[in-house]
Fold this sequence. Notes:
Elements: H1 11-19, H2 24-33, E1 46-52, H3 59-78, E2 90-96, H4 101-113, E3 118-121, H5 125-138, E4 142-144, E5 160-162, H6 167-184, E6 191-197, H7 200-215, E7 219-226, H8 235-242, E8 248-252, H9 255-268, E9 274-278, H10 288-292, E10 300-303, H11 311-324, H12 330-349, H13 354-363, E11 391-396, E12 399-404
Parallel strand pairs: 1-2, 1-3, 3-4, 4-5, 6-7, 6-8, 8-9, 9-10
Antiparallel strand pairs: 10-11, 11-12
Amino acid sequence: MKPRPPSIKKVSGVVAVVLASATLAACSSSGSSDSKSGSGGSGKAILIGSVHPLTGALAGAGGLMNDGAKMAVADINKAGGIKALGGAKLKLDAGDSQGSAETGQSEGQRLIQDGAVALVGTYQSDVTQNVAAVSERSHVPMVIDVAVDDQILQQGYKYTFRIQPNATEMGTSGADSLAAMGQANGSPVKSVAYIHIEGSFGQSVFDAFKKEAQKKGINVLKEITYPATNFTDATTQVKEAASVKPDVIVDTGYFPDSLLVAKSVQALKPNIKALYGIANGAFDDNSFPATAGTAGTDVLSANYHYAATSSKVVDIRKRFQQQFHKSMETASVLSYQAVDVIAQALEDGKSSDPTKLRDAIAKVSVSNPLLAFDGPITFDPTGQNKNATVIVMQVQGGNVEQVFPTKFKTAKLVFPVPNK
């Protein structure tokens, strides 16, 4: 999650558009006809569709995520393919959402028409809502790598699964972690001011945080929002947050806007214990420390994150860097993981028929996940990963370190943060 996505549309409108497309039932049939033998279909590779923003303002993140999915396919094929299906190879077909919900929907339809037995994607919640509706209508499973909005899995869908925590889990865990860190360090947090991007993403995380924070004795003194487009200066928002004299300023947003918040906090120097991101697209990105400079020092971030202490993840990220000459961020690791989930379900279910594959994904248990999760990847009846975990990171020494809880730490937590 780096740049800002367009505003999120209502799911009901998405579903109505998708149901109006009479061709999708036929697409489902064509998508699974080559796979019903359970052997990958007449020697053909098993096609997985990847929908991400590959052009436009979000192309940086989307390209990395597609590369993560591509690398997973290559690794699985190199290891012998899907052994339960006679060593059938996987093939990735990329769809470019261009950051648009409508375009993402069209790309999802195209991939299914071309024979994709499963989809991964899409980075933005509004795009994911559309593609999930397409998958549901087509009876082709979709594994969400990144898209936080609760609404996506509140439609009663049976073919959509999400690996990462949802917005409610992130807001709730963010509040729990903040309270726990304050208590553990002898500096309880009593109040916050909360800055977040407008739209369902920011609002849903904030609402969950506020509800849990009140239970923990943390008072949300002020909620400050900013627009999803044409946001170029966070000075006004940070001034407003600082005016109520909170213990902590909390921020939920994407990379460019959260970078502005961090720089404004440095410039205005409010008397706070920390700047704390929740579901933040900047503060735990490996490029943030260098981009933010001293404004990033000691900034905290509650988010899902790749398992930095896993030797398997270290190897994957090292090879990714060598191959693509870019750092493999958490979103890209999630795309790799999404393909890996599909591959294990293909092994477990011994069939590439989309309906049977869906049933196998619903029952899958992926041990040693690539994310810092508190248990294997398994899905509840709504399609949400039951063990998706939020951890806290902190910028220290020019690096993003895992600092809380202790079982995931790579460095010692600094809290309260020294005034800059």
